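Task card 7
Instruction: Convert sequence to structure tokens.
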Amino acid sequence: MCCRETVMPITATEASRLSRRTGLSEEQFCSRDESGIRRLLNNQETKACVFLATSSDLPTAPGICTVYDSRPLGCRTYPVILDESDIAILDDLCPYTEDFDEPSEDDAHRLLNLESKL
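Output:
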């Protein structure tokens, strides 16, 4: 579910690593928003992250991350996100939050550090 219609931000370092790993140019897997932040692209047919191998646009369809070992930190930490007060919480859009421990202050620091690199 988290890999569907993603707006996942990635750092320049992560984009470079993904480019080297996949042989794709940045433009093939990410775009920049109006603030200049890189965000992973979605496949137009499957509505899934371009790195999710799936043939269906159903949100519950199976898929495999093709860059799992090199996935960005935001993907590694999801469904932990920051709320408006920069407190780490579980994203209520994730249907599997009951499978995760409550986020810690360390999680918040890790995401704040990531945010500063975007």
